[in-house]
Structure formats: structure tokens, C-alpha cells
Specification:
The longest helix has 25 residues. Strand 12 and strand 13 form a beta hairpin. Helix 4 packs across helix 10 and helix 8 runs parallel beside helix 12. The chain is α/β, with parallel strands linked by helices. Helices cover about 40% and strands about 15% of the residues. The N terminus is likely disordered. The chain has 13 helices and 13 strands.
């Protein structure tokens, strides 16, 4: 900036003849514009209440820790920015995308909302408890269906008076699309990092060896068939899967744990599968069909309505094409603080030494969401100020260098804030 201002002055001095009034006015106007731009840039980079020359020592220490690396940092409290470094640069949020999904879900639904899984039939059981056709398992986006939940569904079917199923137990392959890809994913992600996100899930859509499967609906139906027979209910035909017919009647139901618990389980271990299933659930509600793209659109709509121009292509954060800013995430955390569900979100995030923060920040009081991709890392959430007390929101995004180095930088910054920072505003 100084180079441009000095250049304008030097250009005026170079002339041997007097400078024309028009040229002098133009150069003065350019100088004023550049200076204004520089002040605006500085205002974004640094808290307006803390001029560069008198920044507290903890801020200068953070700058030293960052050095010349591609790291964005935004720290503040109650809508007031304290510290910023490249906060408006878009970077891959990695699994901080799950933090955005959590906000979008809590904004749209109540924390105690549950997701049902139904047993449905085309005609109600007769007087002797016989189902004439097939019994369908209808999933709606509960990512946690397993053997225990299937046993509960079997008991609910028995308690509904069913004693015989003349047809098959069938797993419904709708209503979500069976898409398994997003822009920015690497070709090996479906095999290694994210099972097929379906409306009816079973054991996180993996087999006993952890291999991702494409027939979770059949596996759920097979397990339920065995459970029903164990309960003394006869099933006439072998289990199957397919697209359920219309006009079915629910006769039994199980429900998921409350949404607040689903979000905690997703964020605590950063479960990609849970994120994409819950993203499809949200996308189906907002856009009419459960797809990975519609889940991303729902998150994008949430961030847009809160003034953030992010690029979102999935719900899990696996996409290298996703873009978010540290300042934008900080502002969303501020919005969360003002919402009734803010404390629920904070409690859902890992604390030091737990979940995805295992072996990290065990000496710091923190609730934060991690994020890791090759050469990209993120950490955003709340950290406690030891000197003055109180939670402070922060976001750190980095890319372009080894994620292990990035995590060391994140931990250093968080410790500096926790143990050294005080409110820099008057």
C-alpha cells in the first residue's frame, strides 16, 4: 500500500514542468481511494478497537506462530472481533462442514426431534394377526439403525398383534436417492471414507469386517426376519429389498434418539456417514428429495441467510471444493450463541482429550470441531479464558501444508488464547 502511495508522489515529482491541476486532482483522488482501501483491509485484518501498534502481546505471539503460512484465524466474543488474520480467505473447512450442518439442523428442527423407522403393510393384519402380503421396513434417515434397534422393531411388530407374514420382510430402498458422490471427492472416498448414505441404514452400512456395502436394506430385512421368527412370528418368504409401493399403512414404529444426541454422536467422532445421511434428511425436507447435493444446498441456504457466501458440495466436509472463511464461521458461532440451541451445539463438540481431540489440548477448557484433509486442517468452536473467565469463539482454517504442522499451530493458538488473552476492547 505504501509503495502505491509513494509511487504516486514520485510520479508527481518526476515532472520538470508544473503538474496540471487535473493531474494533481486525479492523483490526490487515487491516493485517497488507496488509503481508504488500506484502512478497510486493516479493519478486517485487525480488531477495530485494537490498533496495530498497540496490540496486546498475545496477539503478536499468534502472528509469530502463524508466520508466513496459509492460515486464517478469527477470534472474538459476543459479536466483537478481537483478532483476525486472513479471516476472509476461503479455505476447505474439512469436517468443520459438520459444524455447519449441525447449526442448520438445530436451526430448522427442535433438539428433541426424532427420526422414525416404520414397519408398514399394504393391508392391516387380520383377526388372527396375519399379514397377507409383504411387511416393509421404511427408513427415513436415522443413521444409527443396528441389531439392537431391529430387535426393538421386532418386538413392536409383535406387540401390534402380528403373528404371521405370508410374504417377505422387505427393506425399502427409498425415499432417498442412492447417490454416492459429490464434487471435490477423491475417487477412493466411497470405498474408504464414506459408506452409501441411505434412508434405511443398517450397522452404518458396513459388514462385520468394516467393508462398505450396497445392500443395507436387505441386511436389515434379513435381521428382522430372523428376529420375528425368534419371537414366534412366521414369515412365508425370504427377505428382500426394493422400492416400496404406495398406500402402505404403518403398524409399528421405532424412533431415533433425539436430534441433539444424533448431532453429538456425529460431531464427537466426526462420522462422515452420519453427516451425509442427516444431510440427505435435511435436503429432503427443504428441497423435496434426499440427495447429497440437496443436503449441501440446505446448508448453503442456512449460511446464506446468515450472511455467509460459502461454497458447499456435501455435508461431511470430504469435498476439497468446499470453501468457508474463518471470519464467517466465527460470525455463525456468534449467531449460535444468541440462539436457544447454542449451548446444545457447544456441548455436542469434543472437549480437550476426547473424541477427535483425543491426545490434544487436554489442559485447555474447550469445545471445538476438528477438520482434516490432506494438506488442510480446521478447528473452530469455543475456548475458555483462564485470566478473566468466559467463553470466546474462534475459528482456524489452513491449507497448503502438512496437516500435522497445522494442528500444532492450532493447539498453540488455542493455548495462547486460553491462558494469555484478555478482552482487548476498551
Amino acid at each position: 500500500m505504501g509503495f502505491l502511495l509513494n509511487g504516486c508522489a514520485k510520479s508527481m515529482r518526476r515532472y520538470h514542468r508544473p503538474v496540471s491541476p487535473a493531474r494533481r486532482i486525479a492523483c490526490s483522488f487515487l491516493t485517497a481511494c488507496i488509503a481508504t482501501m488500506g484502512l478497510a483491509t486493516l479493519a478486517r485484518a485487525q480488531p477495530s478497537t485494537t490498533p496495530l501498534a498497540i496490540r496486546p502481546a498475545w496477539m503478536r505471539t499468534i502472528e509469530t506462530v502463524i508466520g508466513g503460512r496459509h492460515v486464517s484465524v478469527a477470534i472474538g466474543n459476543d459479536g466483537v472481533p478481537w483478532f483476525g488474520h486472513l479471516g476472509w480467505v476461503g479455505r476447505p473447512p474439512a469436517s468443520n462442514e459438520k459444524l455447519l450442518l449441525s447449526m442448520a439442523l438445530l436451526q430448522r428442527y427442535r433438539p428433541w426431534r426424532t427420526i422414525r423407522t416404520d414397519a408398514s403393510v399394504s393391508s392391516l393384519p387380520g383377526a388372527r394377526g396375519a399379514v397377507r402380503g409383504d411387511l416393509w421396513i421404511m427408513g427415513h434417515g436415522d443413521p444409527g439403525i443396528d441389531g439392537t434397534r431391529i430387535r426393538a422393531l421386532g418386538r413392536a411388530i409383535r406387540d401390534a398383534g402380528v403373528r404371521r407374514i405370508r410374504g417377505s420382510v422387505m427393506g425399502n430402498t427409498g425415499p432417498f436417492a442412492r447417490d454416492w458422490w459429490a464434487r471435490g471427492w477423491k475417487d477412493y472416498f466411497p470405498a474408504d471414507y464414506i459408506p452409501l448414505p441411505t434412508a434405511l441404514t443398517y450397522r452404518e452400512n458396513t459388514d462385520r469386517r468394516g467393508v462398505h456395502v450396497t445392500d443395507p436394506e436387505l441386511r436389515a430385512a434379513t435381521n428382522l426376519t430372523a428376529r420375528l421368527r425368534h419371537l414366534g412370528i412366521s414369515v412365508g418368504r425370504k427377505p428382500g429389498m426394493g422400492h416400496a409401493p404406495s398406500g402402505l399403512h404403518p403398524i409399528a414404529q421405532i424412533v431415533s434418539p433425539p436430534l441433539r444426541d444424533l448431532i453429538r454422536r456425529m460431531d464427537f467422532r466426526s462420522r462422515n456417514f452420519w453427516a451425509e445421511v442427516l444431510g440427505k434428511y435435511l435436503g429432503a425436507d427443504e428441497w423435496g428429495r434426499g440427495t447429497i447435493a440437496n443436503g449441501a444446498r440446505a446448508i448453503d441456504r442456512f449460511t446464506d441467510t446468515h450472511g455467509q457466501d460459502f461454497k458447499v458440495y456435501d455435508s461431511s466436509g470430504l469435498s476439497y471444493a468446499n470453501r468457508a472463511t474463518a471470519r464467517g464461521i466465527l460470525e455463525l458461532l456468534w449467531d449460535a450463541d444468541g440462539a436457544s440451541w447454542g449451548p446444545i451445539l457447544r456441548a455436542a463438540l469434543p472437549s480437550g482429550g476426547r473424541g477427535t481431540l483425543k491426545d490434544r489440548l487436554t489442559d485447555v477448557r474447550i469445545h471445538a470441531k476438528t477438520g482434516t484433509l490432506d494438506d488442510a486442517s480446521a478447528l473452530s468452536g469455543w475456548v475458555w479464558l483462564e485470566k478473566t473467565g468466559g467463553w470466546v469463539e474462534f475459528s482456524i482454517l489452513s491449507n497448503g501444508f502438512n496437516e500435522w504442522t497445522a494442528k500444532k499451530i492450532e493447539d498453540r493458538i488455542v493455548r495462547i488464547v486460553s491462558f494469555q488473552a484478555t478482552d482487548p476492547t476498551p
